[in-house]
Design a protein that fits this description.
777 residues; alpha+beta; seven-stranded mixed beta sheet; 26% strand; HET; Heterokaryon incompatibility domain-containing protein
């Protein structure tokens, strides 16, 4: 740490690189590490150090820091501890100038990404508070001692050059001695920080909407503008303050609201109040929850007359109305001109921050160092390195992002205003904007144009699907039977986006076999999902269908989907069949959109020639209507959840008295996944693990002393693929098997949510094999 003379620590840090496209982001001049009391000492002779110290001290005392960074420790009296003066003196401060940090919109593809160079600050306060938080600083405009080229917001360019004698870093050394300074050291990136008002500036928000509506590079955002509009939709008229039934007319431009309902009661549309709420002015007299009234205020200020709000536009006590509209949720949110996301509220009464005075509190601090203007960002999480399919951190921790229903509402929307606790974000299919960042949304130009050939606009992507399903699976439902309806909009959207990609209970047909071997991260209390999913059938009747055990939708509790199984080369899978909504038998065309389609599982298991279309007698693969088990063909609601395929099974015995329940993932048997080439190997049945031993497979007469505890279980093959590592096993096949239990003649369920994966050579020696039709619900 520098002394208090004419030289300070900040003289040796490359602040000039913040907000530029320079690529020299390495070296000691990009980082610093010191205690807060040392910073205060430097502040006596340095205005930047003084401003920087005030910023850290201010942030340490803000409620927003406690809520939206990490944590304060809890004191014995239950109050949240805040840093004392002594705590602050000993606080550790680290800074780093970071390049190529990503600002990513709320999407699951390559679109909507920009890179920024910023200053990241980490503060660790020990003692009684144990507070750890982070601050992000952005460049707030041109300046500094390096020549820069600046492109301002909007169009055109201007160049700002600083040629002061003895400029910072005006020479460098190589093997031949001093190197003259470059004519142009760096260009400013289009992203610049700016002050965020405590009350929303609607002129700014309307400007974002106008850019997206009119800019030629936003074709993705306009792709659902044309064509026929939804018919017969109810909307909230924010001018006449009533519900408006379009009554078959073409629907005008409208906004949508995505929010968390919560458990506290609030006004909802029901049969008894429908006529009243259709009357002009009725909503002025009604007691509306703050989130809904704030959303209507946003619409008025953005000059959007109509908004669709589920609680006021769906008759909540009319199941037929609910199912019909919920089945069209993706179309409603996709065709809306804008979706308002109330991300910070835990319920409908929470309101939308920034709409009313006093609902946002964080005041930004402006600093300057060597002519470089800086300003702190309201939310340090908006710029992060992440994969293209991750949900951005700036939204992932909000109450809105914990709920399953809200996921589809954002995914299908073309334009979104995310209202977080202290900041409003604009996210469309092309980019991200925020109140505290000046940036024109011309993303993916120039630097990222090389990705244009892999943009995920209309082709099936297994990886994109997996990340969407994984993100959704982490979200919660108040009623677990809502799982199917909460995911339906996502499924419908992906079906249309991928040009007719069919789905069965959340699993896309384009990679059905490999995705069918989904796994849940281990969790000891996982169980089958309760309740039923209502399906409106072709004849108008409603079927209540139990969630199938073969889909990840059919299981609840704990963790997230693990999606790295079933991706092996040399894939083999059965020919799968399901029923559509009209109860017609559908052959799943697995791999239709993939370069490598899976080969028939019969070729792998029964030594048929690879790729042969001929199957010897008794080894049937094609399903006919006459083959469907009576238990399914005679029970319409079972058809909706049935998965049928021909494959090989074995019947093995296990000792029901010898089992154990894992208490953590570390207790999960290592042999459960691809490590067993010989007996014994484990299987999971109803949450308990059992060993399949060679001894128990012998003739039953040799097990008289264990006869009462021995049980039979059927194992069915659902997938096969080649090992890629370790090297000595490369090319060998592993087999995915499910323990299944017959509930009625010809109808089975999965015995647990975990597969067993073994080497083919072990499968080959198992007894009592049979090639048969497997029907799982």
């Amino acid at each position: 740490m520098a002394d208090t003379g004419s030289t300070h620590w900040c003289d040796s840090v490359a602040f000039e690189l913040i907000g530029t496209d320079a690529t020299t982001f390495r070296g000691d001049d990009l980082r610093a590490n010191f205690r807060f009391k040392e910073l205060q000492l430097s502040a006596e002779n340095c205005e930047f150090c003084a401003s920087f110290a005030r910023l850290i001290d201010y942030r340490s005392k803000q409620e927003a820091t406690r809520l939206h960074n990490y944590r304060y420790s809890s004191r014995p009296d239950g109050e949240l501890g805040k840093p004392t003066e002594e705590d602050m003196q000993n606080a550790q401060v680290q800074i780093a100038i970071e390049g190529a940090r990503e600002a990513r919109n709320w999407s699951f593809g390559f679109e909507g990404v920009s890179h920024r160079s910023v200053m990241e600050v980490w503060v660790a306060i020990g003692g009684s508070s144990s507070l750890h938080f982070q601050i992000l600083l952005q460049r707030a405009g041109p300046g500094g001692r390096v020549p820069v080229k600046h492109r301002p917001e909007g169009y055109g360019e201007d160049t700002i050059t600083y040629n002061a004698p003895g400029g910072w870093r005006d020479t460098s050394l190589d093997d031949n001695g001093p190197v003259p300074p470059a004519t142009l050291v760096a260009s400013l990136q289009p992203a610049l920080g700016r002050p965020r008002p405590l009350v929303v500036d609607y002129t700014m928000l309307r400007g974002w909407l106008d850019i997206c509506l009119s800019h030629e590079n936003h074709n993705l955002c306009r792709q659902d503008d044309g064509g026929s509009r939804l018919q017969g939709l109810r909307l909230v008229d924010v001018e006449n303050m009533c519900i408006w039934d379009t009554d078959g007319q073409e629907t005008p431009p409208f906004a949508t609201l995505s929010y968390v309902w919560g458990t506290e009661p609030f006004l909802r549309l029901v049969k008894d109040n429908l006529d009243t709420l259709l009357e002009p002015g009725s909503l002025r007299k009604a007691s509306l929850p703050l989130t809904i009234s704030d959303a209507m205020e946003v619409c008025r200020n953005l000059h959007i007359r109509y908004i669709w709000i589920d609680s006021l536009c769906i008759i909540q006590d009319d199941e037929s109305d609910m199912i019909e509209i919920i089945d069209s949720m993706d179309s409603i949110y996709r065709q809306s001109i804008l979706t308002i996301v109330a991300a910070a509220g835990v319920n409908a009464h929470a309101g939308i921050p920034g709409v009313r005075p006093g609902t946002r509190t964080l005041v930004q601090q402006q600093l300057e160092v060597r002519g470089v203007p800086l300003i702190d960002s309201v939310d340090h999480r908006q710029v992060r390195m992440q994969t293209q399919y991750e949900e951005p951190e700036w939204i992932a921790g909000t109450p809105w992002a914990q709920r399953a229903w809200t996921f589809q509402e954002a995914l299908v929307s073309r334009r979104i205003l995310f209202f977080t606790a202290e900041l409003v974000y604009w996210s469309c299919r092309e980019g991200l904007l925020s109140e505290d960042t000046v940036e024109h949304s011309e993303f993916q130009q120039g630097t990222f144009s090389k990705w244009s050939h892999v943009r995920l606009d209309d082709t099936f992507s297994k990886l994109e699907y997996q990340h969407i399903a994984t993100t959704f699976s982490r979200r919660r439902l108040t009623f677990e039977s809502d799982m199917g309806r909460a995911y339906l909009g996502t499924q419908n959207y992906l079906d249309k986006k991928w040009s007719g990609q069919m789905f069965s209970w959340g699993i896309p047909h384009g990679a059905f076999g490999s995705i069918l071997v989904w796994e849940w991260a281990f969790y000891t209390s996982r169980r089958r999902r309760q309740g039923t999913h209502p399906i409106k059938q072709a004849d108008g009747t409603i079927a209540r269908v139990a969630f199938p055990t073969w889909s990840w939708m059919g299981w609840i509790e704990g963790g997230q989907l693990v999606h790295f199984f079933g991706d092996e080369p040399g894939a083999h899978s059965p020919l799968f069949y399901t029923f559509n909504r009209a109860l017609e038998l559908v052959k799943i065309r697995d791999g239709q959109d993939r370069i490598r389609r899976p080969k028939p599982i019969v070729d792998l298991l029964l030594d048929e020639s690879i790729g042969s279309d001929e199957v010897s007698p008794g080894r049937k693969t094609e399903l006919q209507e006459a083959d469907i088990p009576l238990g399914i063909s005679s029970t319409p609601f079972l058809k909706h959840s049935a998965l049928m395929f021909y494959s090989q099974t074995v019947e093995v015995r296990y000792d029901s008295s010898e089992w154990f329940e894992a208490t953590s993932i570390l207790d999960t048997p290592s042999g459960l996944k691809m490590t067993r080439r010989e007996y014994p190997f484990p299987i999971m049945i109803a949450g308990k693990f059992y060993q399949i031993t060679e001894e128990n497979q012998k003739d039953e007469r040799s097990h008289e002393n264990k006869k009462e505890s021995l049980r039979n279980i059927k194992l069915a093959v659902v997938f096969g693929g080649q090992m890629t590592k370790p090297k000595n096993f490369r090319g060998k096949y592993r087999i995915y098997i499910w323990p299944i239990i017959e509930t009625t003649p010809g109808v089975c369920v999965r015995a647990s949510y975990m597969s067993t994966v073994i080497f083919q050579e072990l499968w080959d020696i198992l007894p009592r094999k049979k090639w048969e039709l497997i029907s799982i619900v």
